[in-house]
Specification:
Elements lengths: L8 E6 L5 E12 L4 E11 L5 E9 L6 E3 L4 H17 L1
Antiparallel strand pairs: 1-2, 2-3, 3-4, 4-5
Length: 91
């Protein structure tokens, strides 16, 4: 059996306080109808049930430099949750 190492995609995020953190990208995607981009990433933290915590952000490129924003629209969040459900079925 070939035991190949899957290359992890990493990105740096800058917090509001200016600190920089390396995170692992799980999935980046765009909704074609809204042209909104999203990224699902992890810091490889585990919760009390030993599940890996994941984060989802909207990618805003309007200022030239990509910014990660929260998702505060309920309809938008429901669509993203559908993507997360599909992703969890694959693994």
């Amino acid at each position: 059996m070939d035991n190949q190492e899957i290359e992890k995609k990493m990105m740096s995020i800058v917090a509001e306080d200016g600190s920089v953190e390396e995170v692992e990208v799980i999935l980046a995607f765009e909704f074609k109808d809204t042209k909104k981009e999203y990224v699902i990433y992890t810091k490889n933290e585990k919760d009390e049930n030993d599940n890996v915590t994941v984060y989802v952000s909207h990618v805003d490129r309007s200022s030239g430099e990509p910014k990660l924003l929260g998702i505060d629209d309920e309809e938008e969040w429901n669509r993203v949750k559908d993507v997360l459900r599909e992703l969890s079925k694959v693994e």
